C-alpha cells in the first residue's frame, strides 16, 4: 500500500538521521562533560539565611511566605538549629526539583556580643559542612539579618576558604558592623578585626548591605553609620558592594525581614532568574518593582 | 480469547462517553499536531538548552534567537496550551448532539464552565482574572471531557429536545430561552466547584498532598519505587493527567540526579555512582521513547501491520513529534487516551524497558545515565548523551525499541479487528 510505503520511508529516514546525529551528540557530550568536570557547578544553589541575636529558626517564616507568594516556583524551607552541645537538628525539607531552597541556620546560643558572634560563626561552619554533605551543593547565596550579617562576615573570613563551595551573593540586612557606635571614627574591636582580615573574603562575591531608617540616624536600634561601616570591610575587596537604604513603613529594625521593599530586593538581587519555568506562563513576575526602593 | 475480547471492546466503544471522547479527540488532533510541532521548535531548536541549539550553537549566530522561541512558545500556548478548553467545548457539543439537544449552546456552556474551574484564587496584587494555564493544557483533558459530558447531560435533563433547525433570528432567540435553565445550572455548578477548589487550595490541602507525594517519590532509592512511579506516570498519562515523572522536553532531575552527577564529575566516571536505579537512569533514559508510554514503538507497529489509511496517516504525522519525545499527537490521533485497547502495552512497554535497562546497568553492560542531556533530545539519544557517549547505551536503546514494537504489534492487530467489526456492524445496521 502506498501509505505504508511512505511511513516506512519516513521512519527509516528518521532512524538514519538519529543515528547520524549521534556523532555530533557524542562530541557535544564529551565536550560538555569535560567542561562540567572543570567547572563542576551544582544546579542546587540554596539561599542560606542567618537570623540576628535572640531570634530563632522561625525568624524568616514570614519572609519566605512573602517570597513564595506569587512565585512560579515555590521555594522550600529547611530550618537548621545548632545546639550548644554541637547537636544539629532539622525541621522541614527540601522538595525535589527545587533548586533554590531556603535554609535557615539558627543557634541555641543566640546572644549578642563579639565573643558570641565568633562562637556562632564556628557553629555555623559545622552546620554548613553538614549541609554540604547532605545536599551536595557547591554554590550558595547568603542572607544575614542583623547579627546574622556579622556571623556571615566572620564565617567568610575565618572558615569558608577551607571549603570548595562558592558564595555567590550576600545580603546583610541592618547588620551593625560597628555595633551601636554612631560614629565610624570609633572602631569597635570587631570592626577592626573584620577590616584586618578582609582579604580572606572571596573577591568574586557580590554584597548588598541593606539599612533601614526609621528616623534620619537609625532604624530604631542600629545606627545607620554602623550599617555603613560595612563598606570598610567589603568595598574594593568583593567584586561589587552596594548599600541600599529603605525607609517608610516597616523600616524599623526587627520588621526589616518582612519589609515589602526588602522582599523585592531579595527577589531581584539574590534569587536566580532562571528559576522560572519556561512553559506556559500566566503570571506577572513582580509588578511593583523598583521605584521607591533605592534612594 | 480474542474472539471474546472483540465484542467487549466493540460494546465499550459504543457507549456514549466513548463516542463523545473519540470524536472530541479527533477534532482536537490538528491543533495538537501543530502545537506539538511548534513546541519542538520552541524547546529543541530555539531554547538555550535545546538539543539543536546545543549541537549547532544557533544562538551565537542567528539574530533574534529569543524572538523565535517566544513566537513558537505563543503558538504552542494557544494550541496545545488550551486543548482542554477546546475539549470541553467539543465534548459538550457532541454530547448534546448525541442526545438531540442544542449542541452549539451546550458547547459554549461547556467552554465557560470549564474556564470557571480554571480560575486561580483571586489575588489582590493583580487585577483581572488569572487562569490556571496548566489545567487549560493537556493536563486538564480529563477534566475538560468530563465537564463537556456533564454539560451535555445537563442539556438533556433541562432542555426540551430540538425538532427543527433554527434558521431565523426569532428561532435562535427561542433556542436561547430554551437553553437558559441548562446554562444557568451548569454555570452555577461550575462556580460552586471552583469555589470549593479555591478553598482547598487556600487551606493548603492540595499543595500538601502534592508535596508529600513528591517527597515520597524523592526519598525512594529502591528500584521497585522507580518502577512503580513509572507505571503510575503512564497510567495517569493514559487518563490525560501528568504523573510524577512527566516532563515536557526537560530532563527529570531530583536530588538523586544531583548526587550522581556530582559523584561522576568528581570521580571522572559514571560507573559507580551512588544511585544506580533512579527516575533519570531508568525512566528518563529508556522508559519514554516517543514520550510517555513508548509511543514511538506504537507508530512503527501501526506502520507494519495497519491496513487502514487513517491510522497510517496519523502515525506518519505523529512520527516527527514522537521522535522528539512528544507523544501528544499520537495520544489524541489514534486515540490512545482512555482507550482500553492499548492500555496494556502502553504500561508494559516502559516497564519492560526500565527492567531491562536496570539489568544492563546491574551487570555493567552500560553505565547509568548521569550527565546532563539537552532539552528536547530525541528519545533514542537521551541515554547515549547521558552516559557521555557510551555506545552500549545506544545499542540497548535500539534493542528495547524493537522489543516495544513486538509488544505493541498484537494490540494493533486487535484494534484492526475491532475496527473491522465496527465497520461490518455499521454496514449491517445501514442495510436493515
Automatic annotation (TrEMBL), chain A:
KW Zinc-finger (keyword) present: no
UniProt keyword annotations, A-Z:
Hydrolase
> Record's Gene3D superfamilies?
alpha/beta hydrolase (3.40.50.1820)
Q: Which domain of life is it from?
A: Bacteria
Q: Which GO terms describe its molecular function?
A: hydrolase activity
What the entry lists under InterPro entries is as follows: AB_hydrolase_fold, DUF915_hydro-like
Q: Which residue windows are transmembrane per the record?
A: none
Q: Which SUPFAM superfamilies match?
A: alpha/beta-Hydrolases
Keyword S-adenosyl-L-methionine among record annotations: no
Under which name does UniProt file this protein? Alpha/beta hydrolase
Q: Which organism is it from?
A: Ligilactobacillus ubinensis
Organism lineage = Bacteria, Bacillati, Bacillota, Bacilli, Lactobacillales
From TrEMBL, chain B:
Query: What GO cellular-component annotations does this UniProt entry give?
Result: plasma membrane
> Keyword Transmembrane helix on this protein?
yes
Q: Which InterPro entries match?
A: PTS_EIIC, PTS_EIIC_3, PTS_IIC_cello, PTS_Sugar-EIIC/EIIB
| Molecular-function GO terms, alphabetical | protein-N(PI)-phosphohistidine-sugar phosphotransferase activity
| Mode of membrane association | Multi-pass membrane protein
Task: Please list the GO biological process terms of this entry.
Answer: N,N'-diacetylchitobiose import; phosphoenolpyruvate-dependent sugar phosphotransferase system
Output the superkingdom of the source species. Bacteria
> Is this entry keyworded Transport?
yes
Query: Subcellular location, in the record's words?
Result: Cell membrane
Give one Pfam hit by family name.
PTS_EIIC
Q: Please report the stretch or stretches of sequence annotated as the PTS EIIC type-3 domain.
A: 1-411
Alphabetical keyword list: Cell membrane, Membrane, Sugar transport, Transmembrane, Transmembrane helix, Transport
Q: Which residues cross the membrane?
A: 71-92, 104-122, 134-155, 176-197, 222-241, 286-305, 317-338, 350-371, 391-412
Main function: The phosphoenolpyruvate-dependent sugar phosphotransferase system (PTS), a major carbohydrate active -transport system, catalyzes the phosphorylation of incoming sugar substrates concomitant with their translocation across the cell membrane.
Q: Which PANTHER family match?
A: PTHR33989, PTS SYSTEM N,N'-DIACETYLCHITOBIOSE-SPECIFIC EIIC COMPONENT
Q: What's the name of the protein?
A: Permease IIC component
Source organism (scientific name): Ligilactobacillus ubinensis
Amino acid at each position: 500500500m502506498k501509505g505504508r510505503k511512505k511511513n516506512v520511508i519516513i521512519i527509516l529516514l528518521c532512524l538514519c538521521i538519529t543515528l547520524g546525529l549521534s556523532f555530533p551528540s557524542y562530541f557535544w557530550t564529551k565536550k560538555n562533560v569535560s567542561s562540567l568536570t572543570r567547572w563542576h557547578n551544582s544546579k542546587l544553589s540554596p539561599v542560606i539565611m542567618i537570623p540576628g541575636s535572640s531570634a530563632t529558626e522561625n525568624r524568616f517564616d514570614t519572609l519566605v511566605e512573602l517570597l513564595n507568594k506569587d512565585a512560579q516556583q515555590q521555594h522550600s524551607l529547611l530550618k537548621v538549629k545548632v545546639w550548644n552541645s554541637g547537636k544539629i537538628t532539622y525541621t522541614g525539607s527540601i522538595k525535589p526539583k527545587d533548586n533554590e531552597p531556603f535554609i535557615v541556620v539558627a543557634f541555641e546560643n543566640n546572644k549578642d556580643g563579639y565573643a558570641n558572634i565568633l562562637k556562632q560563626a564556628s557553629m555555623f561552619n559545622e552546620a554548613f559542612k553538614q549541609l554540604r554533605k547532605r545536599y551536595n551543593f557547591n554554590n550558595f547565596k547568603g542572607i544575614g539579618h542583623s547579627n546574622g550579617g556579622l556571623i556571615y562576615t566572620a564565617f567568610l573570613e575565618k572558615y569558608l576558604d577551607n571549603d570548595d563551595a562558592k558564595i555567590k551573593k550576600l545580603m546583610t540586612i541592618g547588620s551593625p558592623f560597628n555595633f551601636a557606635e554612631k560614629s565610624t571614627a570609633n572602631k569597635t574591636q570587631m570592626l577592626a578585626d573584620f577590616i584586618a582580615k578582609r582579604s580572606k573574603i572571596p573577591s568574586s562575591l557580590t554584597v548588598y548591605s541593606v539599612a533601614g531608617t526609621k528616623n534620619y540616624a537609625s532604624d530604631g536600634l542600629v545606627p545607620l553609620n554602623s550599617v555603613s561601616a560595612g563598606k570598610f570591610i567589603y568595598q574594593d575587596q568583593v567584586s561589587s558592594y552596594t548599600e541600599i537604604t529603605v525607609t517608610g513603613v516597616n523600616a524599623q529594625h526587627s520588621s526589616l525581614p518582612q519589609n515589602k521593599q526588602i522582599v523585592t530586593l531579595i527577589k531581584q538581587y539574590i534569587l536566580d532568574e532562571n528559576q522560572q519555568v519556561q512553559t506556559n506562563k500566566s503570571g506577572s513576575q513582580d509588578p511593583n518593582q523598583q521605584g521607591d526602593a533605592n534612594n | 480469547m480474542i474472539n471474546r475480547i472483540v465484542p467487549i471492546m466493540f460494546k465499550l466503544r459504543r457507549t456514549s462517553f466513548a463516542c463523545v471522547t473519540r470524536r472530541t479527540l479527533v477534532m482536537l488532533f490538528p491543533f495538537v499536531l501543530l502545537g506539538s510541532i511548534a513546541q519542538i521548535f520552541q524547546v529543541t531548536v530555539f531554547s538555550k538548552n535545546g538539543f539543536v541549539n546545543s549541537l549547532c550553537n544557533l544562538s551565537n549566530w542567528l539574530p533574534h534567537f529569543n524572538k523565535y522561541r517566544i513566537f513558537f512558545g505563543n503558538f504552542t500556548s494557544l494550541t496545545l496550551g488550551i486543548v482542554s478548553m477546546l475539549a470541553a467545548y467539543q465534548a459538550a457539543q457532541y454530547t448534546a448532539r448525541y442526545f438531540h439537544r442544542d449542541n452549539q449552546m451546550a458547547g459554549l456552556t461547556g467552554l465557560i464552565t470549564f474556564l470557571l474551574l480554571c480560575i486561580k484564587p483571586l489575588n489582590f496584587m493583580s487585577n483581572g482574572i488569572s487562569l490556571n494555564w496548566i489545567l487549560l493544557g493537556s493536563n486538564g483533558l480529563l477534566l475538560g471531557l468530563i465537564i463537556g459530558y456533564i454539560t451535555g447531560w445537563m442539556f438533556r435533563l433541562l432542555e426540551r429536545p430540538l425538532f427543527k433547525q433554527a434558521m431565523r433570528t426569532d428561532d435562535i432567540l427561542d433556542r436561547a430561552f430554551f437553553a437558559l435553565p441548562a446554562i444557568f445550572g451548569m454555570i452555577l455548578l461550575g462556580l460552586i466547584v471552583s469555589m470549593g477548589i479555591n478553598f482547598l487550595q487556600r487551606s493548603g490541602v492540595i499543595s500538601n498532598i502534592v508535596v508529600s507525594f513528591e517527597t515520597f517519590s524523592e526519598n525512594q532509592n529502591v528500584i521497585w519505587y522507580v518502577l512503580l512511579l513509572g507505571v503510575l506516570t503512564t497510567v495517569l498519562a493514559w487518563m490525560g493527567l501528568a504523573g510524577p515523572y512527566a516532563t515536557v522536553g526537560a530532563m527529570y532531575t531530583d536530588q538523586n540526579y544531583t548526587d550522581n552527577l556530582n559523584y561522576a564529575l568528581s570521580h571522572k566516571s559514571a560507573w559507580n555512582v551512588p544511585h544506580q536505579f533512579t527516575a533519570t537512569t531508568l525512566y528518563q533514559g529508556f522508559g519514554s521513547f516517543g514520550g510517555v508510554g513508548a509511543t514511538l514503538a506504537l507508530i512503527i507497529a501501526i506502520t507494519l501491520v495497519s491496513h487502514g489509511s487513517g491510522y497510517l496517516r496519523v502515525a506518519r504525522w505523529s512520527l516527527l513529534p514522537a521522535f522528539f519525545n512528544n507523544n501528544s499527537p499520537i495520544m489524541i490521533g489514534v486515540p490512545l487516551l482512555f482507550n482500553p485497547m492499548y492500555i496494556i502495552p502502553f504500561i508494559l512497554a516502559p516497564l519492560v524497558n526500565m527492567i531491562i535497562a536496570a539489568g544492563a546497568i546491574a551487570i555493567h553492560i552500560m553505565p547509568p545515565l548521569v550527565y546532563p542531556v539537552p532539552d528536547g533530545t530525541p528519545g533514542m539519544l537521551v541515554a547515549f548523551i547521558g552516559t557521555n557517549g557510551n555506545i552500549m547505551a545506544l545499542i540497548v536503546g535500539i534493542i528495547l525499541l524493537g522489543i516495544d514494537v513486538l509488544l505493541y504489534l498484537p494490540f494493533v492487530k486487535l484494534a484492526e479487528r475491532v475496527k473491522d467489526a465496527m465497520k461490518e456492524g455499521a454496514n449491517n445496521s445501514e442495510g436493515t
